[in-house]
Write a structure and sequence with these properties.
Helix content is 80%, strand content 0%. It is built from 22 helices and no strands. It has helices at 3-41, 43-46, 51-55, 59-67, 69-87, 89-106, 113-127, 130-139, 144-155, 157-175, 184-206, 219-239, 244-248, 251-279, 281-285, 291-315, 319-337, 343-364, 366-369, 374-388, 391-406, 410-433. α14 (251-279) packs antiparallel against α16. The longest helix has 39 residues, at 3-41. Residues 1-8 and 435-449 have low confidence and may be disordered. Its main location: membrane. Residues 25-435 form the Major facilitator superfamily (MFS) profile domain.
Amino acid sequence: MNSDTAVGSDEHLVRSGVRRAGRRLVPLLILLYFVNYLDRVNIGFAGPNGMNEELGLSATLFGVAAGVFFVGYLLLEVPSNLLLHRFGARRWIARIMITWGVVATAMAFVPNATVLIVLRFLLGVAEAGFFPGIILYLTYWFPAAQRARMTAWFMTAIPVSTALGAVVSTLIIQHAAGWFGLSGWRVMFLLEGIPAILLAFVVWFLLTDRPAQARWMPQPERDALERALAAESEQVAEAGPKSVLGALRSPRVLALSWVYFGIVYGLYALGFFLPTIIKGFSEQYGTSFSTVQQGMINAIPYAVGLIAMIVWTRRATDPTIRVAVPALVGGLAIPVALYLADPWLAMVAVTICACGVLAALPGFWSLPTAYLTGAAAAAGIGLVNSLGNLSGFAAPYVTGALSDATGDNRLGLWVVGICMVSAAVVTWLLHRSRSRPDVTAAPPASTDR
């Protein structure tokens, strides 16, 4: 067999291995992230449906409770990702899921605002490392050419969990009130926290750390996939930081953190406050919706956003366009919603914003993973995710505080638009400067093995 034939054979085996791994791993990862994201944002459904009144929460205090999750998340994100890189995804993700499931279930029994805030902080500590760990895990299995598509499929869990979760959560709140002697919102926390504990055991037995360990994959596919990933890793290592410290102080990593902050700011502002905004339609527009109807309306932007996410990832091939265009469109759409006299037109603008956020997210993660590898990737991806997810604290807190100060949500949602537009601008500036070497890209490589 000559070298050209060998290369062609390897490409065929890599494609076959990618398809097999995608069918085996990605559905499980989608399910895990579905449960993860729902446990993170279901406080948004609890707040306007009994929790705020029962615990005496103002809009500002609710924003603190929703956002303090990300303080704990930030503190342990990078260490958690480094531990996953060292011990393997199967063990570490199973550990994360058990601890977050316990804390999420305990949310059903909070007696007051103080305990709620403490548990939300601990939930962030427990979940730290899950999402960036999965992004890192995808680099162990899928070459860059296929990774954006696999990341997009994995991240469909965001709109699915928000859309389906909105309906399920509001159904539980409305119809399960009184179960176990608990309010509806408490039953919701209980029933939605338990699956994480159960899925931890599924992860332990079914997740495979790397292709070389995949007994369910033919040996030639394993070998070809490992060779392709190793060759790609060597190319990335030549351009990016060579160490954990290099990744943590890289200007490009810090700029990517701001891009992610701006995009995710829109995601969390919508996730935490859209249920409250919809509930306020009755006062603003003279409409009346039941709790379940509110949940179904809440699901509309995310259902449309799911389609936009998949279509845009397939159509847009340039990484800069894939991120900057939807971030810009979403950022410009959200202020428009504030000045429309009809609730359905307002929902159209909100839906466009949701489409922009969701379409930008999968493409975004192709940027740092094309620049980082090894332990530098574990640290850099963790840092980008943790700094970016500071928006998870800032968005609900700022939106709630501005709502209390002004009496409506307009100013807070203007901030959402500004953050998203700035993310698009920084993405474009990174594209303009990508030919310039990163000044931190070449420290000694002794610490990343």
